[in-house]
Amino acid sequence: MRRKIPITLTVEEVNKIIEQPNKRVPTGLRNKAILLFIWDTGARVSDVINLKPSNINISKREAIIINSKGGVDRNLSFSEYTSEVLKRYKEERPKSNYFFCTLKGKKLNRSYLFIMVSRYPKRTGIEKKIGIHTLRHSFPIRFYKESNHNLIALQKILGHKNINTTNIYCYMDNSDIKENLRKYYYKRDLNKSDISHRSP
Fold it and tell me: Which entry of 23, 133, 149, 156 is annotated as an active-site residue?
């Protein structure tokens, strides 16, 4: 069965999108916190809307995802900058059973997140067809490169039961191919006897 390659964003594109929410208003601060959380952890939409206050420790920069897709629990970490935004959001958020919630403390609607994430890129001039899962897919590409191609760690972070599901990010990363080709062409060009360098 043919598997479709997901659309991903560059780091520059992600940064542009994350800068869109207005932190001076409650919903903007919350949305920025959500975008940062997904970008740092590769969290699913269901992970975000179901996250309980007791399952996130901002000072330790840790979050526990309970009973995620496939019944997998997993521990996530996030950056210092994200923890600062989450801390500010926590101070202003209403009392709720859900960490990320509406202004009235209710559970967030999945469709709201999809609309929110599709709205911000339009302001930046990014023409890719972007959804909430685009951020989730963009995280592993970055992590895979920066972690020296640690596929097992990435599998645990994303909560994939099957390593074959995670393998798609290995396929999408062409950095090793480009480097190997560069070395190949360099060695070939040094060899003046190579057929490609002979006169026609």
Answer: 133
